[in-house]
Amino acid sequence: MFLWLILSTALAQDPVGEISEASSSVQVQRAGETLTLQSGDDLEAGDIIESSDAQVVIYPDHQVNLAGKIEIKEALEDKTELALEKGKVHVKVEKQTRPLTFRVVTPMAAFGVRGTEFEVEETDEGSDLQVVEGEVEAQDKQGQIQRVRPREAIRLMKRGGFQKREFRELKQRFKFKQKEEIKERRIKRREKRVQELRSGQRPNRFKNKMQSQEGGGQGPRRRNR
């Protein structure tokens, strides 16, 4: 019974994503600590991720090519919000059969999408948006909204308002993966976590917390990798 409780709780605490690829190490701020992660490592809600060149998957199948710094503000099956602090992200959001909310927010703007590919870059002048396919709803800090369609580009100015820009072809180091490949990778990673928990190889935050409470201690600290 206790083992079942640990396993079910651990699965409920499943990662919200992973670092799919990275050309160098990735810095992640998590629970007051700075971790150095690499390709294949898990991501959690609240993580602040910084990299000059990495691809991140947010489950179930959203892909983000990152050259900058983002925070995973929220990551649910039907609702995701990323905060871009600096740099740029090239995002691919798969079309879903159910209602979905996916947003990228910057200090100057918010971008809402459903099934599309686009790039957002935070600059000194404002937030630049380019849409590759689908449609993005851009909202400036004054609440004005503009819909941006394929091969259109705009800048949301710091002072408010929109400025039309010329669309440029996007170059990216990492190609986006097929939806089926992401699903298969996630299933295999989940199965591996269960096996490791059963064999005692993988640390479990819930189990450590219970042991800490029983022993009156603080429990083990998470270390940098």
> What amount of the residues lies in strands?
over 45%
CATH fold node name of the domain at 2-6 and 75-211: Jelly Rolls
Cα shape? globular
Radius of gyration of CA atoms, rounded to a whole number: 19 Å
Helix content: 10-25%
Number of strands: 15
CATH class of the domain at 2-6 and 75-211: Mainly Beta
* Overall pLDDT: 82
Which class best fits the helix and strand makeup? alpha+beta
Count of discrete alpha- or pi-helical segments spanning 4 or more residues: 3
Unreliably modeled segments: 1-12, 204-225
Main sheet characteristics: 15 strands, mixed
CATH architecture annotation name of the domain at 2-6 and 75-211: Sandwich
Q: Could you tell me how far the N terminus lies from the C terminus, measured between alpha carbons in angstroms?
A: 32 Å
Secondary-structure element order, N to C:
HEEEEEEEEEEEEEEEHH
Any overview of this molecule?
The protein has 225 residues and is α+β, with helices and mostly antiparallel strands. It has a domain at 2-6 and 75-211: Jelly Rolls (Sandwich). Helices cover 19% and strands 45% of the residues. It has helices spanning 2-12, 179-199, 205-215; strands spanning 17-22, 26-30, 33-37, 42-43, 48-58, 62-75, 79-93, 101-105, 109-113, 116-122, 126-133, 136-140, 145-148, 152-157, 162-165. It has a 15-stranded mixed beta sheet that branches. α1 (2-12) packs antiparallel against α2. The protein is globular, with a radius of gyration of 19 Å. The protein starts with a helix and ends in a 10-residue tail after the last helix. Residues 1-12 and 204-225 have low confidence and may be disordered.
